[in-house]
Amino acid sequence: MMDWLLFGLFLTLMLAGVPIAVAMGLAGVAVVAVADFGMLSLPTNVYTGVAKYPLMAIPVFVIAGLIFERAGVAAGIVRFVSAIVGQRRGSLAIVAVLVAMIMGGISGSGPADSAAVGAVMLPSMLKAGYPRAFTASVIASAGSTGILIPPSIALIIYSLLVPAASVPALFAAGIIPGILVGVALILMAWWLSVRNGFEADVSAARPPFWQSLREAAWGLAAPVIILGGMRSGLFTPTEAAVVAVFYGIFVGTVINRQLGWNDIWKVFVEAAEISSVIMIIIALASVFAWASSTLSTFDRLAQTVLGTGLSETGMLLMIQGLLLVAGMFLDAISIYFIFLPLLVPIAMHFQWDLVWFGVIITMNLALGQFTPPMGVNLMVTCRMAGIGMDSTLRWVLWMVLAMGSTVLLVTFVPELALWLPRHLGYL
Predict the structure, then answer these.
(1) Contact 171, 151 (CB under 8 A)
(2) Domains of the chain, residue spans
(3) For the chain, what is the radius of gyration of the CA atoms?
(4) Which segments cross the bilayer (predicted)?
(5) Which of 22, 231, 386, 421 maximizes the CB count within 10 A of its CB?
(6) 396 with 386: CB under 8 angstroms?
(7) Alpha carbon 41 to its chain's center
């Protein structure tokens, strides 16, 4: 009965338009009250939900991403990538994906990545003749690599909920799948551009390579410093975020000179707002997670699912479909808190590697970030392009197909995710 109350109230509130995090929190509180688990336990669970050392990296990486966006780093990287790609049909679409992959190695956030790349690439692509809907679709899908290529806020949260999977191992495991996703999106964006004759004017001069490399060098060095420092043991992922912030401030104030102290203050304010939303979601979701854990709800659900007799392959495909549908309507953090207590016991039953499993789940969440009707990346780019999300369906579904194929590839070839962390000694 308590299980039905927990999920029934959560679904009712969500369908009534209550924010998902609030719906989870209220459902958890209701079960704690009715089941007499002790209302005084709620403040403790809210506090312990957010008072975890790995979570300190989230607001700091948000600051780092915003600082690099304001410091003009993205524009320099765009010129450098354009110098490599050259001027041809579909070149700007290719540049958009490559820039998003590089910027994702700084921000760790899909929406932040989409916003930063959209601010630079959207005007250029529209000027070159790309349709607004196509441009929004490409940038939104490219931004999804931000939670795969480290540093990834999503992988940090996964490690928090699944302690057996360390942050360094997850970061290393996300690199090759993130690159494969980028390649798949590049090929699809290029094919659609050629097929539809986008960017017909190829007479524009290619930016000079060495000059553009010098301009982009400080931005390109940021992911190297972050990942290299963690690999060498010089600093932890949380400390890496702090290093990234100070490095970004140095680049923005001393090198590019596009950041003033007033700009930095505005970045801190915006980062505080974004981080507060994330932390509130985690805090309220932790109440829901604690209530369901106390009731052993997900243990019973896991046993029920395993009792269906599905094969290992069938179970993998069912989980993929479940996460894809969930990603269309829920944000990544909520999905982690709702589904991980159910999915981790299933993964342990089949003896799946939890690092690989975390990458698979995160890839599905990345796919959901630009899948209508609730893809958050697509919301960002559609708002920037001034169009409705329905107008992107013609294009974004092709990008969903490209990334979905990569998800299945990594699902059935686990070494694509596990080879690098094993090689680096994290597994």
Answers:
(1) yes
(2) 56-423
(3) 22
(4) 57-80, 92-112, 132-158, 170-192, 234-255, 267-291, 317-342, 354-375, 395-420
(5) 421
(6) no
(7) 32
Give counts: helices (H), strands (E), the chain.
Answer: 20, 0
CB 165 within 8 A of CB 426: no
The three-point CA angle 319-11-382 to 5° equals: 75
pTM of the complete model: 0.78
| Beta-carbon contacts of residue 192 (< 8 Å; ≥ 6 apart) | 90, 93, 134, 198, 395, 398
Residue 43, CA distances (Å) to 37, 144, 145, 238, 341 in order: 13, 34, 36, 26, 21
User: How does pLDDT run across 284-323, given as a tens digit for each residue?
Assistant: 877 877 787 777 766 676 677 777 777 888 888 888 888 8
Residue 388 CA to its chain's centroid (Å): 22
Measured in residues, the chain has a length of 427
Which residue from 91, 345, 122 is spatially nearest to 198, judged by alpha carbons?
A: 91
With beta carbons less than 8 A apart as the criterion, state whether 288 and 338 touch. yes
Distance CA 262, CA 251 (A): 16
Evaluated on CA atoms 277, 283, 287, 289, the torsion sign reads positive
Q: What is the pLDDT of residues 376-400, one digit of tens each?
A: 788 778 887 888 888 888 899 999 9
pLDDT value for 188: 94
Q: How far apart are CA 290 and CA 273, in angstroms?
A: 26
Q: How far apart are CA 116 and CA 145, in angstroms?
A: 13
Model confidence at 255: pLDDT above 60: yes
Rounded to whole angstroms, how far apart are CA atoms 70 and 51? Answer: 30
Contact 176, 390 (CB under 8 A): no
Q: Please state, in angstroms and rounded to a whole number, the distance separating the CA atoms of residues 37 and 44.
A: 13
- DSSP characters for 388-408? -GGGGHHHHHHHHHHHHHHHH
